[in-house]
Amino acid sequence: MNRRWVAFWVVIGLAALGLRLYRLDAQSLWLDEGNSWAMAMQPWPVLALDLALPNAAYPLYHLLLKGWIGLAGASEWMLRLPSALAGALSVPLLALAARAAAPAEPQRTIATAAAALIGLLSPFALWYAQEAKVYALVLLASAALLWLALRAAQRDRPADWGWLIGLAIVAFFIHRLTALLALSAALIWLFSRPRRYAWPIAAGLLLVGVGMIAAMAAGIGSDRAASGASIAADPLRALWLTFTRFSLDRWPGDLPWWWLGPWLLLVGLGLNNVRAAPRSTALVIGIMGGVPLALFGLQLFFTRLYEARYLMIIFPVWVVVLAMGAAPRNAGPGVGLWRGLGALALAGALITSGLSLFQPRFGLFSGDPVKEQYREAIAELARRVHPDDAVVIHPGYLRPLYAYYMARLSADPAPEPITFANFWTGENNYSQREWDAERRVALAGYTRSLLLIAPDHARTVDPPLPGDEYGLVGNFWAFSREQRTWPCGIWRFQGVHLFCQEAPEAYITGELVEPVTLATATFGDDLQLLGYTLKATTPAGPGVYRAGGNIPLSLFWDVRQPLPEDYSLFIHLCRDCDQPPVAGDDGQPLAGYLPTSTWLPGKPARDDRAVHVPRDLPPGEYRLLIGWYRPSDPSPEGRLPVRGEGAMSAGRLWLATIEIVGDGQSGALPIR
After folding, report:
1. Closest Cα to residue 456, out of 229, 224, 133, 223?
2. 117 has pLDDT over 80
3. Which UniProt keywords apply (predicted)?
């Protein structure tokens, strides 16, 4: 290998790694990544046993991920790093496979460079190289299998077939779907040279493949596709969807249609060149691409369940076909025209790949949220939650992400989430009456609840009625006023919504909520503080709080007469209260859903707040101050004057003195 090729491989490898590390943790973990982390938290014996279970889809990945977490930790960046490394290594392997497929120079050099560039910039490959899931490793194994299959078919040496068989065995434990590649390798060996009984044996192998697909269809279940868990597609539509996803990782309609033009031209040129390639090359590409695709299409007749990632095993074949399209034959009529078309199509494919990666709303590198924003939604929840809140997650299989992010976003213990088991099983006959009964039991005695819901996933187990956004669970929180409760906030993130609902009286039991500490203070002429409750988040009890956690506070109010304006409340945490506060909370009551102009005399209002304490706040004593101001004038001059015990200058009331301790510590300072 000359220096030029050494430099080529080094540059391609470093560029592939750099792209796959770029903004690696910019997007939140999404549902499947949370499940990967949860599986890796299982004990070693459980994960080892999965290697022998046929229904464990990718057991070796979970074992490898568990070992990696033990060495490197479980941050988002570290969880995704193995996929980024596997994705980067797959690029030179794709180039090697294309090099093996090209018959001679200069085709070989052109195909090698084309495959490397396509693999380097592929939006589809980059997406899976930046998620904590098995599919980047599947791509690496599949690319290696294709390269070894081409070498084995061309050279027909026992050692080459042995390497192919060995990798196929390992790949089966990486992902069970690679069994289709092992089946393809057996067919390639069978037809690589004349053999007796080749066709009857091939028919038997294909029947084995049909059995694999039948098992897959039974495991997936057509009802999941019908309920929307994946894309419902027949084989013809699936073929078109695969083309758009493999090309630019988009669904039809998510990009200008003409972006697909270079890809159509390139794949057409590639298939034409594969047809004219040596028999061994055409055999490998035809079988390793066609057999898994045909068998996967067969199950669509029964399940209608389509996921492009399940076809990752043939993505290397796709890249090689495209690379062959950029490297036309060396001789024949119009060779110059074919070379020009191939170069033009390759340039168009690479340009549209770059455009796709930075496309607003959809591009992985666009800066927009393109994955479900569990991190952002749970961060909002963590900043607001009280220890006695009812936290509902829906569907229940969001629990791993709740556990993962709450442990990292708050120093306080997370409330045990409430899930509704009957929705988890997806019972179609789960009625309003059954839901009402289960909800009453789950929420009885709570005075506030927060719902974390992923609408697209929830509809698979809790389908909404026509025209509705949510099913039974989501609608209960979306229409809080109809439940005779107060909404206290709605936050919508990409793919995840957070609802807050406050009950004037305890759910179901109707128990009145009274302040623990009575207080008497008046803001302005008519706004009265009746008392407050500081809740405990540490073993030391109320008044001692962790840096990185919350100070949960309930404030109780009344008015002497209706107020003419909607005022906002501020809460300041300060040590030197002549300086800006070190933490605080600000806004209208119940996130604006209970404006002060609607308050009536003799109808007390409760406003549950939380002050999130910075993790780096030094331990010690701090004061908690509150006050009201006109939103049109947030300066101290716009604050309502305060009268009563604890009144301070600038419209502030000294509510209590608290202690901040480091994470994992507890104090013993009483509330003053």
Report:
1. 229
2. yes
3. Cell membrane, Glycosyltransferase, Membrane, Transferase, Transmembrane, Transmembrane helix
CA distance 562 to 601: 7
In sequence order, what E strands does 264-350 have? 305-306
Q: Which fold has domain 374-502?
A: Rossmann fold (3.40.50)
How would you class 97 by CB atoms within 10 Å of its CB: exposed for 0-12, middle for 13-18, buried for 19 or more? buried
Question: Which two tokens mark 504?
Answer: 């004037």
170: left (phi over 0), alpha (psi -120 to 50) or beta: alpha
For 424, residues 6+ apart whose C-beta sits below 8 A from its C-beta are 395, 396, 397, 461
| Per-residue pLDDT tens over the stretch 124-166 | 999 999 999 999 999 999 999 999 999 999 998 999 999 999 9
CATH superfamily of 517-661: abc- transporter (atp binding component) like domain (2.70.50.60)
Give the separation between CA 186 and CA 527, rounded to whole angstroms: 82
Distance (Å, whole) CA 577 – CA 596: 27
Question: How far is it, in rounded angstroms, from Cα 565 to Cα 214?
Answer: 67
Instruction: Specify the pTM.
Output: 0.92
Identify which of 252, 230, 360 has the alpha carbon closest to the alpha carbon of residue 305: 230
Query: Which distant-in-sequence residues (6+ apart) come within 8 Å of 467 by Cβ?
Result: none
pLDDT value for 669: 42
Write down the pLDDT at residue 218: 62
What is the rounded CA–CA span in Å between residue 422 and residue 430?
A: 7
- 262 within 8 A of 287, measured Cβ to Cβ: no
In contact, 301 and 216? CB cutoff 8 Å: no
Q: What's the gap between Cα 471 and its chain centre?
A: 22
Residue matched to tokens 């609840």: 449
Residues 213, 214, 219: CA angle, nearest 5 degrees? 95
Q: How many CB atoms lie within 10 A of CB 393?
A: 23
253-262, 473-482, 582-591, 636-645: range with lowest mean pLDDT: 473-482
> Domain coordinates of the chain in residue numbers?
3-357, 374-502, 517-661
pLDDT in tens, 356-388: 999 999 999 999 999 999 999 999 999 999 999
Q: According to the model, what pLDDT value does residue 664 have?
A: 64
CA distances from 404 to 56, 78, 79, 371 (A): 23, 14, 12, 17
Of 250, 245, 331, 321, residue with least CA distance to 286: 321
pLDDT digits (tens, 9 = 90+) for 236-286: 899 999 999 999 999 988 999 999 999 999 999 999 999 989 999 999 999
pLDDT at 429 over 70: no
DSSP for 631-669, please give it. Answer: TT--SGGGBPPEEETTB-STT-EEEEEEEEE-TT----P
Do residues 74 and 403 make contact, with C-beta atoms less than 8 angstroms apart?
no
Neighbours of 506 (CB within 10 A): 16
Q: Is the model's pLDDT at 221 over the cut of 50?
A: no
Per-residue buried b or exposed e for 160-173, using 16+ beta carbons within 10 Å of the residue's own CB: bbebbeebbeebbb
Per-residue DSSP letters for 105-153? TTHHHHHHHHHHHHHHH-HHHHHHHTSSSTHHHHHHHHHHHHHHHHHHH
Residues 6+ apart with CB under 8 A from 492: 498
Q: For residue 288, give the amino acid letter.
A: M
Distance CA 549, CA 127 (A): 34
- Which residues have C-beta within 8 Å of that of residue 564, sequence separation ≥ 6? 597
Residue positions counted in the chain: 672
Residue 619 scores a pLDDT above 80 = yes
- Residue 30's nearest CA partner among 310, 369, 499 is 369
